[in-house]
Amino acid sequence: MAITTVLFDLDGTLLPMDQDVFTTGYFKSLCKKVAPLGYEPEKLVKAIWAGMAAMVKNDGSETNEKAFWKFFATIFGDRVYGDMDVFNDFYANDFKNAKIFCGYDPKAAMAVRSLKDAGYRVALATNPIFPSAATEERIRWTDLEPDDFELYTTYENTSYCKPNLKYYEKVMSDLSVSPQECIMVGNDVGEDMVARDLGCDVFLIKACMINKAGADISDYPQGDFDDLLRYIKNLEKNS
């Protein structure tokens, strides 16, 4: 079956970054924002990481947003629900300053536009652990706009996380496509390349590759965005 739909990861793929540098930088800004509310920085950061882990474990019974805040409340109490507006304001306004902790690759946006111009459907399959405001902001850092994508996953609209295959199943269900029509493009071997297990094609962007398990990557199509476009072009010829 011919490829009709390209699923892109965001962080480390379309948006070059060292995840440790990025999270350290933006957490520092968040801690400063909510310090007047009595959130001690070290405890806050640990709670956010643990909240992210709770989202990764989400079984689909609630949105990732609800899973996060439910866990967050076990650490700081129900007062967190009264503080949500301050956290949301951070992502809507202050978060834009975290752009300095990321890189930029003009070929990323060029690849997305080129594929759209060629008639492919394009969606953003980014791990849905951020609010929509933060996801939309990071999309703009790539020189793209949210509406360049037919779909993008956020913690409000998704109930699973990578590497759970149900995350990819839900994305494809929302797009009304089969795995055999899709190619997943990402930089994380453990989170993005697993889409192959559903029958998707995959492509590994290597510039900011993450391979925590040290897996053999020799079997994955891989390279940069020029290589990606060539790979998809070859798939066209052979379909």
Task: Please explain how this structure is put together.
This protein is α/β, with parallel strands linked by helices. The chain has two domains: 5-17 and 103-238, HAD superfamily/HAD-like (Rossmann fold, 3-Layer(aba) Sandwich), CATH 3.40.50.1000; 20-99. Helices cover 44% and strands 8% of the residues. It is built from eight helices and five strands. The protein has helices at residues 19-34, 41-56, 64-76, 79-92, 106-117, 132-141, 165-175, 225-238; strands spanning 5-8, 121-124, 182-186, 201-205, 222-223. It has a five-stranded parallel β-sheet. Helix 2 runs antiparallel to helix 3 (64-76) and helix 5 packs parallel to helix 8. The model has no long low-confidence stretch (mean pLDDT 97).
